[in-house]
Design brief:
The chain has an eight-stranded parallel beta sheet with strand order 3-4-5-6-7-8-9-10. It is globular. The protein starts with a strand and ends with a helix. The protein has 318 residues and is of the alpha/beta class. It contains eleven helices and ten strands. Bound molecules: adenosine-2'-5'-diphosphate (A2P). Adenosine-2'-5'-diphosphate (A2P) binds next to helix 9.
Amino acid sequence: MTVFRFKNGDELPAVGLGTWKSATDEVGNAVKEAIKVGYRHIDCAPAYGNEKEIGQAFAECFEQGLVKRSDLVIASKLWNDSHEPEHVLPALEQTLKDLRLEYLDIYLMHWPVALPKGTVFPTGPEDMVPLADCPISSTWKQMEAAVKKGLVRHIGVSNFSVKKVKELLADSEIQPEVNQIERHPYLQRKDLLSFCHANQILVTGYSALGSVDRPAMLKGVDEPVLLQDPEILKLAEQHNATPAQVLLKWNIQNGVNVIPKSTRTERLKQNLAAASALELSKQDMAKIASMDQNRKYLDGSFWCMEGSPYTLENLWDE
Ligand code: A2P
């Protein structure tokens, strides 16, 4: 299995399983199937609303001897309503309880956005807490405390810009080791990628297949469907691979690990095999490099309603 490595040598498999949008009645089976076919990295978050079901699946896998805890790389994320320092460790403890684990391999701040405790999703600007009132650096101290307590092996962030990562690097005792960002041929983020890699921060790409199954409220009009892009289809045919495998391998060849979500065994196998099923040539990579549109499928506009302290400009620092 192709792996990337943390600074201390710990492995991060190139292909993991994403669980965002996996329904509660399907996710347990998807996790068990994934582990059976060889996945060793599972990406979770309390915001996905399915950690209890995933915890049940882990427990069954361990009980049946399918895998040992130490063989898995399990990630979860701190939701935005728990950024106040006193809420960080309790939120982590809840996730550990739901996932039925004693520690996480990776714990990420889900967004550089704060919400009041108990708010899963904001309904208006009154639900938004400005970063000035709840600074990332004070949340981060508690992320560091989680490492010191042995509850978490590696800490990191998600949806952070170069500017925000830079600020965190300058103000942290334990540096972020992961930045999980949306990444695919329509959103290549070359500067962010090279900045992270230059600072020994692993980049995990989410929505690497274009997240066609995300809720309608998160979709724009007339969005191009990545899995149906003619160039991707052409490359898939040339390599006797599937379009999904081309998309995943492109990220992996760029040094990015991927966490495609699926609940179907055939696709789980296909996605896991992407790392070894094909090799994109220099010309293929150049072709895909020319497809960048700086297009975010998940642009964070749901944090930026009128009256919110967050805007698309200050969220992405673009
Ligand atoms: P399903 O769960 O029914 O397999 P992303 O990881 O970018 O969010 O994409 C997830 C979406 O892509 C889901 O709709 C998932 O559907 C679909 N998907 C996952 N793997 C494949 C694949 N190999 N081929 C086509 N679609 C896939």
